[in-house]
Specification:
CATH superfamily of the largest domain: Endonuclease/exonuclease/phosphatase
Strand order of the largest sheet: 3-4-2-1-11-10
Number of domains: 3
Largest sheet: 6 strands, mixed
GO biological process, one term: phosphatidylinositol dephosphorylation
Low-confidence stretches: 1-13, 71-75, 320-363, 421-425, 671-739
Protein name: Inositol polyphosphate-related phosphatase domain-containing protein
Structural class: alpha+beta
Oligomer: single chain
Distance between the termini: 39 Å
Number of strands: 27
InterPro entries: Endo/exonu/phosph_ase_sf (IPR036691), IP5 (IPR046985), IPPc (IPR000300)
Number of helices: 12
Helix content: 10-25%
GO molecular function: phosphatidylinositol-4,5-bisphosphate 5-phosphatase activity
Shape: elongated
Strand content: 25-35%
CATH topology of the largest domain: Deoxyribonuclease I, Chain A
Radius of gyration: 31 Å
Amino acid sequence: MSSAQNDTMSDSVGTGILVQICLYILTWNVDGHYPSVSLNDALSINSTDCPNGSHLPDIYVISFQNTQYEERTNQHSRWESKLADLLDQMGYRTICSDRMRGLLITAWAQHEHMNNLKDIETRHVRTDTGWGNKGSVSVRFNLYGVGVVFVACDFTASDENFLDRVDEFEGSIYNQRYKTRNYRDVFDHNFVFCFGDLNFRLDGEQSTIIIKSTVSKGNLKELYKSDQLKWTRGMPIKLALMREQEPDFPPTCKFVEGTTEYDLMQRPAWCDRILYYFHTKRSSKQLDLTQIAYKSHGDYILSTHKPVSAEFLLTIPLRAPSEDDITELTNEPQVLCYREHRLNECGKIRMSSAQNDTMSDSVGTGILVQICLYILTWNVDGHYPSVSLNDALSINSTDCPNGSHLPDIYVISFQNTQYEERTNQHSRWESKLADLLDQMGYRTICSDRMRGLLITAWAQHEHMNNLKDIETRHVRTDTGWGNKGSVSVRFNLYGVGVVFVACDFTASDENFLDRVDEFEGSIYNQRYKTRNYRDVFDHNFVFCFGDLNFRLDGEQSTIIIKSTVSKGNLKELYKSDQLKWTRGMPIKLALMREQEPDFPPTCKFVEGTTEYDLMQRPAWCDRILYYFHTKRSSKQLDLTQIAYKSHGDYILSTHKPVSAEFLLTIPLRAPSEDDITELTNEPQFQYWDLLLFWQQSQLNSDKTSVGGILTPRRDRFDELLLTPLGLRVTNSSIMLNNV
């Protein structure tokens, strides 16, 4: 069993042993104070009674908010040092710590668990523009083979800022991204804990006196009905997924420092919270979470907040260890089990499939593949296809630098098509494309639609075997018929990730921010199953296109815009383009690039003419954007835009079709054994076998025989891959053809 297999089967391949972990979480907004008090009671030392039979938790995770930020010469802040002095002597070891100025998170475990903590990572996200006290800091690790993440938060204060706090939570969760395979996002983890000064307040007009009176009467359930955090339960947001045991302790803020009395200048609230999420879909039946306790430590009077703690019992089935779990804990000899016939440059058995996957960019063949990509977008305004698509697809006129007069791949999106309850597989627009592209040797990669929004991808037949892990997704951003939103297609092309997101967003000049929100929501919610390419921006090449509907800023009338276009002064007009506003914004849309359009605005025309509709200001609504992920790419991987144009002769719709051509340069990687497919009955030679054959040929005479074929000696391995004697390369294998 490979490590990749073992990871995916970690819940099903078990040992029958259940591990129970007692977890203790503490949060405290210390209001800028230094640690002048004992933490024993806050950490329930000598009083914790975990069901695992111990009087101490297995793991502590602690967050302090509003600590004094010190430019320190030593490793620990004063609060960290306070914890270290206490926990070290009790046999705990630090897992990790991280901070963002005043916001601190630190995790500790009993020493016997340390060898079962893997892939430890920390991240932090700022949500304010000041000193960085507002936001979140997170710690994640694999605990006995399952993913656990802790997100410590400190959000905006004041009763009226409810929506700001929701936004801060969503932004914090979205931007906490990790490198660990299968646990890239917060909600990929089996166990999720979010805690800190979340700052949610009480709704209503109750005064501090009334709230204080309600608390003194012990009527906490009635008071809890006004809690703002409860508002989020039915909202379509990540925060609504989090669960909380209803607090049976009084509001934790705001007190007069040095007392247990509420400050009459501010209404009390449960600002300090501990939330959890148990990912049952990713978990086996034996994996479980139970909350043992949830309490406030009211005797602490150092701060205006009271510390809050929670205890949980995590039940984890102990999985069978994989090869990757082998660690050098002793000096005993270790035997590593690898599959047979894994050859490195010395011809020895050394390389596992997991290693080969991670080295796919570095172990190359020296060959570069160039792919000519053609993207077309057209809002057809509800019309059926009554016109030829040859010109829109630049058939017979495309001149790609790969030497062909036809692109290697077409990706096409139509917006506002007629939605038909169909008995056949294709809509009319898909059938129109199929009739045209089939006869030219193209094969459909995939198609998907969301009522009126359609995306379809086609490739020349010789590339089909090099297209892997094909997926489609769609995201609705309206509450109507589902025309607004996005549909995406992704696949691996010669070993690199490519994704296409076709969009149709809200219209009207004034809805700029709605369009930005729709783009961000579309990108965030397009999630895929392919390893290493879970999100849109994980891909090497990203293309977003369609009727994005961005308009022109300003008060220019249709007449003035039309006059500017007729004078050819497009650069001046482009300065007013709304899409340019996004370039400096802290959003995903700002990452996208676009060749400046040198064609007139593509909308809105009078149907059947090339004249603009005087009732609506023209704009470049139809766009094709791209993003090239250089950080994930080798130096040889490249993207070049060849063309970007509008097809103004089409008068079927109020929009003009827009197309773009790109040249993708991809280094051909060395195929792994997992890539082998039985394409023919010809004898197949795996890459590593072929490499060994080449090495042997260097030691022999001028000619070497393989499979009865005399092959000249080659000075370089890539010459062998390119030899005309019948060796051809696919991503799946290197095969010896008949000569």
